[in-house]
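ASSEMBLY PREDICTION REQUEST
Request ID: AP-0331
Submitted by: J.K., bench scientist
Number of chains: two
Total residues: 535
Priority: normal
Notes: Please return the full assembly, not individual chains.
Input sequences:
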Amino acid sequence: MHLNLATSQIIPIESGRVQQPSFVSVKRLNKGFGNGRRVLNELSFDVQSGEFVSLIGPSGCGKSTILRLLSGLMTSCSGSITIDGMTTQNAREITSFVFQDATLLPWRTVEKNVALTLELEGISLPRRSPKIKELLTLVGLQDAADLYPRQLSGGMKMRVSIARALASSPKLLLMDEPFGALDEMTRNRLNEELLRIKQQQKWTAFFVTHSVAEAVFLSNRVFVLQANPGRLAYDIPIDLPDVRTAELRSSPHYLKLVGEVSAALHKAHTT
Amino acid sequence: MNKLQAFRRKYQLPVIIFIGFLSLWHFIIRLGNLPPYLLPSPLDILKVFPDRAAELLSAFFITAQEALGGFILSGAVGIAISLLFAVAPTVRRSLLPYVVLLQTIPVVAISPLLILWLGNSMLTVLFIAFLICVPPIIANVTQGLISVEQNLLDLFRMSNTSTYTTLFKLRLPHALPNIFVGLRIASGAAVIGALVGETFAGSTSVGHGGLGYASIYALSQLQTPYLFAIVLISSLMGLLFFFAVSTAEWLFLRHWHESITSEQ
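STATUS: Completed
Returned structure:
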């Protein structure tokens, strides 16, 4: 459906090998606010299609700012971002944002909240309703379709929010601490379900979190950021298997990685 | 059974107080031998209703039309202006202070001017009711339309929605509770506006005036029981307006808004 020229171009690199351009490419990004505070300084990174990247760091390191820049909700002072070969503005139709709170419309039922993005894109009711049913089943809310947000628990609200984000079949999912307000049990279960959904669908994710355990459990890469001004301190690959279940949380390799990321975070915080 | 008990517990005391109050009123007049033009007994007032039903009914409907007309007009105009304020911040910043200022102008003071320009008619009275109703509607609805949280606005921006889609799919439903606050205030103000308006600008021919005019007439004739009947029937109108708005509010908000759901 989406015509894309950039992914079909092949760029040769020095060694003679050929390589696909990155799905998300950020180059020398700078962002300051009106009061002169520098939020991001010369930030550069490349992320391949299908990667799950967690952003972790002290407050003020610009984690949320990076998501807002990637979504095009905010513009940078200098530097460039390309998503699937497009500008962030043009990439909006393949991008979904999951906010810190569930941001549901209280006057709409669960089903109609999930349908919102499709409705706004002008997709007709008969075409969107099978899709909505499928999404509700995917997040385990098939029996809650007619409930209103006030009748839902925090975890259920977040499931609705995720279903809504997935409704437009995004290629890029930006999540700003979506599970931050949930208790640990609910958070763990939603982490597992998010990965289960990711197995079925192919999207690239940026996930802001304060929890090292959550970052390691979910990601292929963890970006540890440093504050004042915000910059990338460590880019830690997480070489855990693609299929991850709750048991992984007690495996020595997982715990070792959690320890490494914690140490990196500590160093980023103190230097 | 439990429901009945709860009902009794809730209404028993107020009903006893009400009956006691009426009895006390009745006996004070009988014992003190007060003349009915100064203070009629409850029974004297009650008798007015069958005796002068046609007059009361005609006055009631005239005032009701003026109040309802002013109320509906203020709702339509008030919401339309608020929608404009929501999409045009510059217009809002330039004009909203004047809406607030309008609220502070005593309409009674400017009603002679309205008579000068519009004459003595039901339309003038309707306009006075409108003037009293419109500022609280604009103030409340505008507040509801512009106080949408940033994340929700960002959610809509992510779908590249137009200003108008955001206005009607997000801001307007978000403002519904505020719309009803405004309408509830206006429903009471509309009846007051119509009554006060009539005393200044209502039709002066007997039989064509509303309750406000009838009360001035009753006062000049010292028909105090009739005056009391007018007070009662005016209060009834106020109650009807209030219940109509509350019912509409319940229908629109019962599923999702705290103000309704917390009472269930």
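REVIEWER COMMENTS: The mean pLDDT of chain B is 90.
SIGN-OFF: pending second reviewer
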